[in-house]
Write a structure and sequence with these properties.
alpha/beta; 4-stranded mixed sheet; globular; binds uridine-diphosphate-N-acetylglucosamine; pyruvate; cell wall biogenesis/degradation; EC 2.5.1.7; transferase; cytoplasm
């Protein structure tokens, strides 16, 4: 069992390089199913989730290779077989479900077990299925499986009741070869949606409006092999911004698209954190000033990201005054609260709202990474807690952060991984 041990309290200094976005590369890997030619993805982040989706494709008879040079991932789905995907891998990661759209587009058929992933709410797939149905697919659910089947995919107008990231991506991929035009309304606007559309368009798809609320997909006949580098991971960058803030440090973060992080940067500015832009996607974060409490509500992009909520709570738990965080995207995303309370944080939950009364100090102890971002929050709190913090269930963190302890160690933190 691997654990991460963090010793507080140390000032961070130096710079950190951000990896490519987990939430971009996962749909991009799924989208390779749409093209029977080799596809190259450079700077592929070495993450557990990336490994899971690559394994899934390998088991479907695709050629998947990752080389250490440039972290280059080469995928050839030419010989993919139309068989049921490995159930265990499907259950490991919710994003595995993103192969359904491309499989439907390529074979007119796909059967998958219902997805797993972070334990942060019921996370239904009704919007994905609504989209597939409107594109002409027949959908059957039973015995833990979903089956979609279509003789022909025909473009349609699809309104999403909620701008779901996964549903927008799955529907976008399912309709790439559709007859006519597909319009997705109330589509998710996350930068990773834009990135997926860029990737598909580079292969020859015709997608307009991705990254905005209305996406238009005009069906094309086929796609060609390309090479592509995904965007930087805005959540990893945001996590290091909070690391600077929580440790009263000044650090440089390389690999930041400021626009993608606007909702996080604006809130941190309000808290008292300084930002200076450097050229070439670098930003200096100055967390040394005095800090103010915040009122935050998570929302779909461009609102404050739910994937930054736990890390922000770590910071606010040591900022003097009362802060309020309301989680509106997922119904069960406060599991880290109990862990923060173990470290001495003063947090009360009222439905979907957390009320945080900042304290000057936290105390190190054994905690759990209850999900991916919650795990990052435990490390952040560990950086400023008295004594030693031992984070268990580290596999959650490895799903979405590349060598997190190494990156923190390079910034001067006392942090290491143990196996026991
Ligand atoms: C993606 C991200 C995840 C992030 C989330 C919200 C990936 C691989 N993961 O997850 O890191 O936390 O967006 O920004 O990109 N919903 C439905 N019906 C559906 C689909 C979703 O009700 O068919 C609900 C979910 O239960 C949830 C909300 O919509 O409450 C948001 O989910 P969604 O945007 O789909 O998140 P994911 O794509 O799973």
């Amino acid at each position: 069992m691997e654990k991460i041990v963090v010793k507080g309290v140390k000032e961070l200094r130096g710079e950190v390089n951000i990896s490519c976005a987990k939430n971009s590369i996962l749909p991009i890997i799924a989208a390779t199913i749409l093209c029977p030619e080799p596809i190259i993805i450079d700077n592929a982040p070495r993450l557990e989730d990336v490994e899971v989706i690559c394994k899934l494709l390998s088991e479907l008879n695709c050629d998947v290779n990752i080389s250490n040079v440039n972290d280059r991932l080469t995928i050839n789905t030419k010989n993919i077989v139309e068989m049921d995907a490995n159930e265990e891998l499907m259950r490991k990661m919710r994003a595995s479900f993103l192969i359904m759209g491309p499989m439907l587009a390529r074979f007119g058929y796909c059967k998958l077990s219902l997805p797993g992933g972070c334990n942060i709410g019921s996370r239904p797939i009704d919007l994905h299925l609504k989209g597939f149905k409107l594109l002409g697919a027949e959908v059957v659910i039973g015995h833990g499986f979903v089956e979609v089947r279509a003789k022909k995919i025909v473009g349609n107008r699809i309104y999403l009741d909620f701008p779901s990231v996964g549903a927008t991506e799955n529907i976008m991929m399912a309709s790439v070869f559709a007859e006519g035009t597909t319009i997705i309304e109330n589509a998710a606007e996350e930068p990773e949606i834009w990135d997926l559309a860029q990737f598909l368009n580079k292969m020859g798809a015709k997608i307009e409006g991705a990254g905005f609320g209305k996406i238009t997909i005009t069906g094309v006949k086929n796609l060609k092999g390309i090479s592509y580098t995904p965007i930087y991971d805005r959540i990893e960058a945001g996590t290091f911004m909070i690391a600077a803030a929580i440790t009263n440090s000044k650090i440089k973060i390389n690999g930041v698209n400021e626009e993608h992080l606007r909702p996080v940067i604006e809130k941190l500015r309000e808290c008292g954190i300084g930002f200076t832009n450097y050229k070439d996607h670098s930003i200096v974060v100055d967390g040394r000033g005095s800090k103010r409490p915040l009122d935050i509500k998570t929302l779909p992009y461009p609102g404050f990201p739910t994937d930054m909520q736990a890390q922000m709570m770590s910071l606010l738990s040591i900022v003097e005054g009362v802060s309020v965080i309301t989680e509106t995207v997922f119904e069960n995303r406060f599991m880290h609260v109990a862990e923060l309370q173990r470290m001495g944080a003063n947090i009360k939950i009222d439905g979907r709202t957390a009320i945080i009364e900042g304290k000057p100090r936290l105390t190190g102890c054994e905690v759990k990474a209850t999900d991916l971002r919650a795990g990052a929050a435990m490390i952040l709190s560990g950086l400023v807690a008295d004594g030693e913090t031992v984070v268990n269930d580290v596999y959650h963190i490895d799903r979405g952060y590349v060598r997190i302890e190494e990156k923190f160690r390079n910034l001067g933190a006392e942090i290491y991984r143990i196996n026991m």
